Structure formats: C-alpha cells, structure tokens
What does this fold into?
Amino acid sequence: MLNKQHSIDSVIEKLHSHKIYSYKDLGFDSSDASIRSAISRRKNKIRMLSRGKFIIPSSNAREKSKLFGKPHEPQAIKRGSISAKRLILSKNIFYSNKNGQIPINNIIVSVIKDGSINDIDAIRYKFGDNKVIEVLLEEFDVNQPKINRICNVIGL
It folds into this structure.
C-alpha cells in the first residue's frame, strides 16, 4: 500500500494545472478501490471534478475554498439541459429559445464568452464549480487573459 501511495504522489507531482486528467492519464486502474481512496485523500494536491475526471489546482487556488461546491440543479446536470424559464442571467442570451431546453454546456460556454462575473457566479451556483471548471477547461484556452481572469475568480 505504501508503494501505491508513493507512486500516486510521484505521478501527481509531474502533472500540470489547468488540464483535465482521467485514471488512464494517471496510469492507474479505476476499478482498484485502494487507488481511488488514495487519490481522494490528496484533496490539496488533486481535485475530483466528476466521476473519473481530475484536475491539479494551481498553487494560488489551493488556498481558496470552493464558493459553490454542490450544484443546485443536479437533475439538470444529469439530463444535460435545463429549461430556459429556470435560467436567470443578467443578459437574455437565449432569447430565441424562451420555452425550450438549453444544453448546460452551451449555457456555461455562452456565459464565459460574455464574461459577466455576476452570470458566472449564477451558473456556478446553479451547476456547481466542478461542472463550470470542467467545461471551461475543455472549451477554452486558459492562457488567454480574459479566461485566465475567470480562472482566478473561480479559484482554479
């Protein structure tokens, strides 16, 4: 067991922040319960976004606590979409689809592109930090100044 812990620590030390990793990227088997528990004990070094997806928080984000941990719309996350009527943002960016379902990833991408900090906080509250971070890292280049500022706001 000690050997596994040492190998997990050495793998984590080599990883870069602002990238999503899976068990495969880490070089471990996801079916091994001891690996899963060993990774979950390293919360200050590696953070689980969703089942089987991890990020390495940047050094300045490690001191910040999560503001919106759990999503307030878990059923919408499971479905992958939410009714436009349940979405309250400062700008009506989905005006053409007032009564339909909007994919959550589209909402998050649109709000991040718009850059309104109030709306970013609204989607973090509704969908949780982990979902917002996951979409941000998959869809945007964190080296762009605007995206980098948003990463700092959400503690990434």
The chain has a mean pLDDT of 78.
